[in-house]
Design a protein that fits this description.
One of its GO terms (biological process) is xenobiotic detoxification by transmembrane export across the plasma membrane. Its main location: membrane. InterPro entries: MATE_euk, MATE_fam. The chain is mainly α and 489 residues long. The protein folds into two domains: 48-261, no CATH class; 273-489, no CATH class. The protein is 80% helix and 0% strand. The radius of gyration is 23 Å and the shape is globular. The termini are close together. The model is unreliable at 1-26 and 485-489 (pLDDT under 50).
Length: 489
């Protein structure tokens, strides 16, 4: 059976999609005009992109909704929940998100190669590793109040943050499983179940927050508990779908002992993926921490926090686009279609430029009113207005690098991206932020200018790598992985 699979790679198709594994022939009888190819690729990416962007925004919104409910309880609960949520993102969610992204490489290429059974194996292996990793992360959350106090945070706020994070611990394990299911379905271009489950979960989450926070008066504990329950609801919906639908009949064959094989190799790739993501996430959070050392730290921290929240909200749009190109590139490379992968990347770059330009223009247009959504103080509103053009530029660059990073994950370049991200943010970005803010006395705007420098370096490095890439070689490498019988046993 396995020898038959290796001899002929059956490749799944999206609507109107044609495949070929011959890397060296021009296949004129199979190719339409370049215009038609581009049109078909744009349709595929929009078909995937709309749901994936929505899923990213919906899943991100759970914490925002909880914090909004807590905001009606007073300043101290709001400060504690905000600090706790930020700490949870840095010390938990971003790590699991990064580790789960390893499946974008493994599942995406396996699906493109027609090795459907391997998607279930890879996913189960990932769940074991991510659930195991959640145990030490949950201990960090349990003692988060102590850690925040050691970091110099206000004792009362740190205590509130610790309570909030402790009640989110059950949801951490659900979040780990959710990241695996997201990549499992995304790699098969089966994205609408993710959209439906995320939409239902968000609606239920609003009800849960109202019940626990308002009706039962559990306070911030209730808001955190609502997050935990909501993540488990999302997981439960996807478990039912994956086990009952015919769409996953070939890719999910139940629990398998094969998931226990080659765990070390997966851990290496997952670790590189996590570090790649975390290097970027942590640099943005570090900017907010540095703002507390500036003159008038209350104003600077408030404005930088607003800037960061705005950035993360828009970033989720770019994350969705990054997931699209990761799936498209990994599918095409797994199928041995180098030109298809390159065309997908070029189309997505154009989409990213259009998206980034649109968001940038809107950001500048709303600069004088955006701060009013967060504060009634004139100095905050005016400072936010000054920051918005910088946010527009950083959002454009961030969206561009998200697409290139997604393509890199599709190719399996995580280790290379670790080096790029470290150099971009910690050799260039943070030192420039310190230079602009504390030496040249530009203040909070200087900190954000340092981030922009890091984004620019990251983008230039990724562009250079893509221009120098032999895509035929990448496609052969991906195909050879699944022609090796050792991978299948």
């Amino acid at each position: 059976m396995e020898s038959e699979q290796n001899s002929t790679l059956h490749v799944p198709m999206l609507p109107n999609q044609q495949r070929s594994h011959d890397l060296d022939s021009h296949r004129p009888e199979q190719l339409s005009s370049l215009k038609e190819d581009i049109t078909v690729e744009v349709k595929k990416q929009l078909w995937l992109g709309g749901p994936l962007v929505s899923v990213s925004l919906l899943q991100y919104s759970l914490q925002m909704i909880s914090i909004m409910f807590v905001g009606h309880l007073g300043n101290l609960p709001l400060s504690g929940a905000s600090l706790g949520s930020s700490f949870a993102s840095v010390s938990g969610y971003s790590i699991l998100l990064g580790m789960g992204s390893a499946l974008e490489t493994l599942c995406g290429q396996a699906y493109g190669a027609g090795q459907y059974r391997m998607l279930g194996i890879h996913t189960q292996r990932a769940m074991l590793v991510l659930l195991g990793s959640s145990i030490p992360l949950s201990l960090i959350w349990f003692y988060s109040s102590n850690l925040l106090i050691l970091m110099g945070q206000d004792h009362e706020i740190a205590a509130q943050a610790g309570i909030f994070n402790r009640w989110m611990i059950p949801g951490l394990f659900a979040y780990a499983i959710l990241q695996c299911f997201n990549r499992f379905l995304q790699s098969q271009n089966n994205v609408f179940p993710l959209l439906i489950s995320s939409g239902v979960t968000t609606l239920v989450h609003v009800v849960l927050c109202w019940f626990f926070v308002i009706q039962q008066k559990f306070g911030s504990k209730g808001a955190a508990l609502a997050i935990s329950i909501s993540y488990w609801i999302n997981v439960f919906i996807l478990v039912i779908y994956i086990n009952l639908t015919k769409a996953c009949a070939e890719t999910w064959n139940g629990i398998s002992k094969e998931a226990l094989n080659d765990i070390i190799s997966f851990i290496k790739l997952a670790s590189a993926s996590a570090v790649m993501i975390c290097f970027e996430y942590w640099s943005f959070e570090m900017v907010v921490l540095l703002s507390g050392l500036l003159p008038n730290p209350q104003l600077e921290t408030s404005v930088l926090s607003i800037s960061l929240n705005t950035c993360w909200m828009i970033y989720n749009v770019s994350v969705g686009l990054g997931c699209v190109i990761s799936s498209r590139v990994s599918n095409e490379l797994g199928a041995g279609n180098a030109q298809g992968a390159l065309l997908a990347l070029r189309v997505m770059i154009v989409i990213a430029i259009l998206e980034g330009t649109t968001i940038g223009v809107v950001t500048i247009l709303v600069r004088n009113v955006w701060g009013k959504l967060y504060s009634n103080q004139d100095d905050v509103i005016q400072y936010v207005a000054k920051m918005m053009p910088l946010l527009a530029l950083s959002d454009f660059l961030d969206g561009f690098q998200c697409v290139l990073s997604g393509a890199a994950r599709g190719c399996g370049w995580q280790n290379l991206c670790v080096v790029i991200n470290f150099g971009a943010y910690y050799v260039v970005g943070i030192p420039c932020a310190i230079l602009f803010a504390f030496v040249l006395h530009i203040g909070g705007m200087g900190l954000w200018m340092g981030i922009i420098c890091g984004l620019a370096v990251q983008g230039i490095a990724l562009i250079t790598i893509n221009l120098c890439t032999d895509w035929n070689k990448e496609a052969r490498k991906a195909v050879n992985i699944y022609q090796n019988s050792n991978v299948l046993t």
